[in-house]
Amino acid sequence: MGSILPPARSGSDRKLNAVTTAAEIPSLDLCGQVFEAVQEIAVVVSQEQVAANTFRMRLECPGVAAQIRPGQFFMVRSLERSDPLLGRPFALLDIIRNSGGEVTGLDFGYVVVGKMTQLLSQLDGGARLSIWGPLGNGFSLPQAEHVAIVAGGIGQTPFVAMLRELLGLETYGSSPRPLLHKPQQLTFCYGARTAAALAGVEWFDLPGVDVRLATDDGSRGHHGFVTDVLRQLIAGEAAPGEVYCCGPEPMMRAVANLINPAGIPGWLSLETPMACGFGACFSCVARIRQPDGTWDYRRSCVEGPVFPAADLVFAEDA
Ligand code: FES
Fold it and tell me: Helix %, strand %, coil % for the chain, to 5?
């Protein structure tokens, strides 16, 4: 990994300059690689606990933050220790700008589930991390008039940036894409086990966004699965014309099983484990339907993590 994306030439300069673009790598031909990817040393600005075992961390990392788009991700690795050895992927929650409007960093969310996230949860402001990105394809812009978003667990975080882009509240990347079509209706459906596990509901208190919550135990919102909420939407008078989804795989399979038979286009953002993030290790493959009806493996890190719901073949269906 280090031989492909060498360490930042930070020296005494802590301005965190982007140092190596993937386009500078002459010997690799990685399908779908994000050529804006850079590696830099990020500095922890702050973090806050936003739900049970769930945190929102802010990084100063102008190189990655200036390029990243909604639905893309970046890899994080400790500079201080080699365990965990490999980086871990985290999705963009939103970018941060200074008072002059310059992009200075980004926020991401995580649940403490393993060594890396445990390590992150113990970091204070000023701690340094190695990050590389942006990676992955990100979300396409929707074409429908009514767009439904379905999120579960920590899968709600990528949709903060997506909604802010759709609402014209923020632009992303060095060449922001034009917003040619603005959906008339945005419904954000978010589910968790209990109310205490719902993280950052207030992030979605955005103009024109209809927030619908669900909890397994009924402690907040609909008592049941978030897919029940989607089912009701589909059965209603103004069914969504497009669905975006991120969360646990069983939830995404349930969403696909609702929208595919209804002929509603959908986009699923996978949370597959990743080791390199740029197409070299094949640790992140997903089964994708081929034109002849068979399926083949595709790397989530470079050809995803967002795939059409109609193309994904889940393990239970393979
Ligand atoms: Fe290595 Fe995708 S994470 S190929």
Answer: 20, 30, 50
pLDDT of residue 20: 39
Place of tokens 């999705």: 91
**AA letter at 128:** R
pLDDT band at 318 (very low <50, low <70, confident <90, very high): confident
SS3 174: coil
Give the separation between CA 224 and CA 218, rounded to whole angstroms: 7
Mean pLDDT of 79-100: 92
Which atom, in ligand 1's list, is nearest to the CA of 299?
2
Instruction: Please tell me the number of Cα atoms within 13 Å of 32 on its side-chain side.
Output: 19
CATH class of 38-135: mainly beta
- Provide the token pair at 93: 């929650």
- Listed in sequence order, the residues at least 6 apart from 94 whose beta carbon sits closer than 8 Å to its beta carbon are 106, 107, 160, 161, 164, 170
Mean pLDDT on 180-205:
95
Contact 313, 288 (CB under 8 A): yes
- Residue whose tokens read 């949860």: 121
Mutate to test the pocket of ligand 1, among 272, 283, 297, 307 (most ligand atoms within 8 A of CB): 283
| Predicted structure pTM score | 0.88
Q: Ligand 1 pocket: which residues have CB below 6 Å? A: 274-277, 279-284, 299, 301
pLDDT digits (tens, 9 = 90+) for 201-244: 999 999 999 999 999 999 999 999 999 999 999 999 899 999 99
Q: What integer pLDDT is reported at residue 67 of this predicted model?
A: 95
Task: Examine residue 261 and say whether the peptide bond preceding it is cis (omega within 30 degrees of 0).
Answer: no
The mean pLDDT of 145-158, rounded to a whole number, is 96
Q: How many CA atoms lie within 13 A of 207 on its CB side?
A: 4
